[in-house]
Amino acid sequence: MLKKCLLVASLASLVLAGNVKMNLNAKYGANNFHTKGAEKFASLVKDYTGGSVDITVHAGSSLVKGNPLKAVKDGTVAMTDMFIPFTSGGGKVFGISALPFIATSYDDAFKLYQISKPAYEKTAKKWNQKLLYSVTWPASGFYSNKKLETLADFKGVKTRTYDKNSAQFVNDAGGNAVALPWGEVYSALRTGMVNSVITSSSSGKDGKFWEVLTNFTKINYAYPLQAVTINLDYWNSLDSAQKDAMLKAAAEIEKAQWEAVKAEDKDALDTMANNGMHISEASDKLKKELAIIANKMLKEYLSDANKDTKKIFEEYRK
Q1: Cβ distance 285 to 150 under 8 Å?
Q2: Is the C-alpha dihedral spanning 43, 45, 48, 50 positive or negative?
Q3: What is the pTM of this model?
Q4: Whether 35 contacts 57, CB under 8 Å
């Protein structure tokens, strides 16, 4: 109750004559693709509301060091972006986009997102927030010091993974999954704590992985989502015109970012290659071996999923 009262008081101080100022916590650095998207979103909101809603984006998780869902729920921060599969509290639903080889293209990933969106919105609402928009990362692949050609190449590899699904995948493939915050990955690669990473081309570019690793194998593991949410108390403090303007901006930036991610992927791959990273496609043999693991994981995932989650996959496969 005390937190609620403090939040109401905070909102009252922020809302003056219809003008609202809010902070948006961005998980990654200022040059990251998703952070730039959040900046564009904030700019659109300001334009579409005639300046009555002013959102300041804070890069590098400078406002939220812990769980973003909890931070927005409590009103510690009005808005945040979050890597959905890694967000504690999202349950099985938030793991959908990071299941291996469910989506194998950007079109697949967008279709899966549209079908899953109501479930994401329902989960966000349980955490006192509204989902505004979500955008995929470039497909996840494997960074290592050798090209991964068969399942045998995973043996003994210490891989930084980004969620429960990717950790299980690496372990089932014969490697050793290691959980690390993103900010510690580069130094862990330097010291040998890990010698492999499963992540996107964009993250490899941002992390300058060519300085510590030599190969990127494009296995197209998954197309995980990054989402932006707003605290419901802040949302409800807006008038109808401001809400409409924010939803318009969210829809516009979501559409633009889903197209821009393809260019981001190409730019990231080109940047890494130009800096000496060896980029290679996964062999047919490796794809077949990894598909066996992926199918096993999906069966396990669905075995105790509720009927709404199961329906998502039924509809996706139509």
Answers
A1: yes
A2: negative
A3: 0.90
A4: yes
Residues 6+ apart with CB under 8 A from 298: 99, 102, 313
Which pLDDT belongs to residue 72? 97
Q: Which two tokens stand for residue 5?
A: 């009262």
Judged on CB neighbours under 10 Å (0-12, 13-18, 19+), 129 is buried
Cα–Cα distance between 255 and 201 in angstroms, integer? Answer: 21
Pairing mode of beta strands 196-200, 176-179: unpaired
Domains located in the chain, CATH noted: 2-139+224-268 (3.40.190.170), 140-222+278-316 (3.40.190.170)
Structure tokens at 53: 């809603």
- Can you tell me the mean pLDDT for 150-168? 93
> Lowest-confidence range among 1-15, 119-133, 193-207?
1-15
Q: 85 near 225, Cβ under 8 Å?
A: yes
CA distance 16 to 78: 16
Q: Determine how many CB atoms are found less than 10 A away from the CB of residue 227.
A: 26
**DSSP 8-state assignment for residue 272:** H
pLDDT at 9 over 60: no
> Cβ-count burial of 224 within 10 angstroms (0-12 exposed, 13-18 middle, 19+ buried)?
buried
